[in-house]
């Protein structure tokens, strides 16, 4: 088998079962790919020995007929997931050197299904960012390039995950999505990314950003691969009190089910100033594809959409300021010594947290402080209910919603932004689903005139990921997205 | 509502982040940019709307109040920046 990296996950599983390839060969190819594309800075740690040992175990299980759902498939893990005995830092200096003595539930599920861990992937510091530029390890780079060959961001916060899957240095990757951190980078890198329903994947062992919004999900090359990985990731977990007991649907089967008879909503508020025309064109194209496949397209209104971002930028920093209080230099991570205990806390947190994280902690502290709690935090929570009510009403008449994933394609690394609010606008189409706890998937739909990928987003009812995979499957087939990025392992051009 | 230098210093203190004096003004400007934008929410009528803190829609599950884990001193201390004799060590807090 010459083109190991060219196999998607479903094809690789098949080749492994037929013994056309071995898990060790596959892992070796991906480790080589990760080294060959090291310039993309999408890995922050490569765990080669670990990967080869796990792959050897996979080969044994395949030989004895005990292969799991993901047996032998090489997986990259966002650095936000705690992995036992392997450095886990959330790409923050304050956690440099932290080696967890435990494994996150999601990654434990992946290894139990036979997955092979390649290493840890770059992300924004504590998942706070939309370009992977706040990472203490420096920015991850998008393997796609425009005509001017300038380095582009892979999106964020799960930028390393999207970059690695697109560059074929990971076959599968985990991400987390608090406001779009899976769907936006998936769109920027031309891969498939799912944010499951809140509660579908356990949050246990994942570094917390905003606990009422955080949700883990899969990055893959195809929709079928995504359903496969998602099936292995999800579980009820008593260690996460918000983990659901709702049974998982047949996601793998749903991918090919088509959309005949489905009602797909098109929310009129998902248009904004400064949005690329090409994004609008693709959105209209997506509607036509679904109509051609037998779905009924229905205009819907989600009137509070424009308030989702400001509500999010109260709720998420508020929760973050509380969650990040644990980084105090006492039990783990960095410590900067000082005479007093408070002095030690203050010096440690000033040195350990980057600018964006400090800014968000301070916003969160302010909106929760005495005298401002009602005006900001409580207000945002009320708006959150109205946003959820908009979706609940829409889902009375439609089975899923089709929207653009992002207002533009990937932007250059280091783009000068004086106003932090401009960066927040990247998440305008993705944040509402987090506030409402809904599942959302981003599927590559086409490229801009500059050759950069654009994604379509499908949103669904809580715990109805199957409908997302039905719609995404049709979009993928209609789009016939086969282009590959310039900086891909194995070399395209 | 907007924050001034003194308020930023107070927030920094509450957040236990050491912010040097020369950073207070720029930070106030950055935070005001965000807070002014957030103020858009004032347009929304939220009278008689209940705040939404959790989307799960179910009550938190209860478990038996029993010990399920323990005796993992080495694990707990495995990442400690400074420890001694099985304890975390911090600067002196009591004279």
Write a short abstract of this structure.
Chain A is an alpha/beta fold and 493 residues long.
What's the layout of helices and strands?
The complex is a heterodimer of chains A (493) and B (95).
Chain A: H1 9-17, H2 23-36, E1 43-46, H3 48-63, E2 74-78, H4 105-112, E3 116-121, H5 159-166, E4 172-176, H6 183-189, E5 192-195, E6 216-220, H7 223-233, H8 251-254, E7 263-267, H9 277-292, E8 296-300, H10 308-323, H11 341-352, H12 355-368, H13 373-397, E9 400-404, H14 420-424, H15 431-436, E10 440-447, E11 453-460, H16 465-479
Parallel strand pairs in A: 2-3, 2-4, 7-8, 7-9
Antiparallel strand pairs in A: 1-3, 4-6, 5-6, 5-10, 9-11, 10-11
Helix pairs in contact in A: 2-3, 5-6, 10-12, 10-13
Chain B: H1 5-14, H2 21-38, H3 73-76, E1 83-84, E2 87-88
Antiparallel strand pairs in B: 1-2
Account of the protein in words:
The complex is a heterodimer of chains A (493) and B (95). With 493 residues, chain A is of the alpha/beta class. Chain A has a domain at 4-259 and 440-479: Amidase signature (AS) domain (Amidase signature (AS) enzymes). Chain A has 16 helices and eleven strands. Chain A has helices spanning 9-17, 23-36, 48-63, 105-112, 159-166, 183-189, 223-233, 251-254, 277-292, 308-323, 341-352, 355-368, 373-397, 420-424, 431-436, 465-479; strands at 43-46, 74-78, 116-121, 172-176, 192-195, 216-220, 263-267, 296-300, 400-404, 440-447, 453-460. An eleven-stranded mixed beta sheet of chain A has the order 1-3-2-4-6-5-10-11-9-7-8, sandwiched between helices. The model of chain A has no long low-confidence stretch (mean pLDDT 96). With 95 residues, chain B is mostly helical. Chain B has a domain at 5-42. Helix content of chain B is 34%, strand content 4%. Chain B contains three helices and two strands. Chain B has helices at 5-14, 21-38, 73-76, and strands spanning 83-84, 87-88. Chain B has a two-stranded antiparallel sheet with strand order 1-2. In chain B, α1 packs across α2. The model of chain B has no long low-confidence stretch (mean pLDDT 93). Chains A and B meet through α10, α11, α12 and α13 of A and α1 and α2 of B.
